[in-house]
């Protein structure tokens, strides 16, 4: 598998613990890849749910995936300010088809005013019982919630203003060049 290059488009697929497809995002532009992480951006991207329902995202979103952390971070750039949707999920894998990960239900939403909310705890407990998440995964996810909250509180990485400005500007430059070739 080749590392996608800056400006290339990839598909993103999330799965559930039992291997079932959860959601697919088309056309995410790669902004940066390293051995450890991928940063991408999409805007008005087609999303397909497992049940076949389709919808289009409403605003630009920066996406951060990492090989070691059990979460990924979606930075939504809106008129009223930046908000974040953080998925507790397996580290990503990349193949010729897509960037893939397992979604573990729990989410942290961060609002433009800094308020944080842990979401979908009931869904997590339901799926943990139904799909029999191993104790190790339960422990890893709870530890990664702590790491994530720490990053949010310290405005680390994707939660820094500089990150958002830098990578959104890079997306705009690459998009401009693609449309004006």
Element string (H = helix, E = strand):
EEEEEEEEEEEHHH
- Describe the oligomeric state of these chains in a short phrase: single chain
Helix-residue proportion: 25-40%
Please tally the helical runs, counting DSSP H or I stretches of 4 or more residues: 3
| N-to-C CA distance | 28 Å
Secondary structural class: alpha+beta
Largest sheet: 7 strands, mixed, barrel
Strand content: 35-45%
Uncertain residue segments: none
The rough form would be described as globular
Strand tally, please? Answer: 11
Output mean pLDDT: 95
Provide the spatial order of strands within the biggest beta sheet.
1-2-3-6-7-8-10
- Radius of gyration from the alpha-carbon trace, in angstroms: 16 Å
């Amino acid at each position: 598998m080749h590392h996608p290059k800056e400006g290339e488009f990839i598909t993103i697929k999330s799965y559930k613990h039992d291997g079932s497809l959860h959601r697919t995002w088309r056309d995410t532009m790669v902004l940066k890849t390293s051995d450890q992480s991928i940063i991408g951006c999409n805007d008005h991207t087609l999303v397909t749910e497992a049940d076949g329902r389709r919808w289009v995202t409403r605003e630009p979103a920066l996406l951060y995936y990492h090989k070691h952390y059990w979460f990924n971070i979606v930075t939504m750039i809106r008129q009223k300010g930046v908000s974040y949707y953080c998925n507790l999920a397996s580290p990503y894998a990349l193949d010729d088809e897509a960037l893939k990960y397992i979604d573990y239900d729990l989410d942290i939403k961060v609002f433009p005013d800094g308020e944080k909310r842990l979401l979908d705890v009931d869904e997590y407990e339901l799926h943990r019982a139904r799909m029999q998440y191993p104790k190790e995964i339960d422990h890893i996810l709870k530890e990664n919630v702590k790491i994530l909250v720490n990053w949010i509180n310290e405005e680390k990485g994707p939660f820094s203003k500089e990150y958002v400005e830098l990578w959104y500007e890079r997306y705009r430059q690459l998009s401009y060049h693609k449309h004006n070739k």
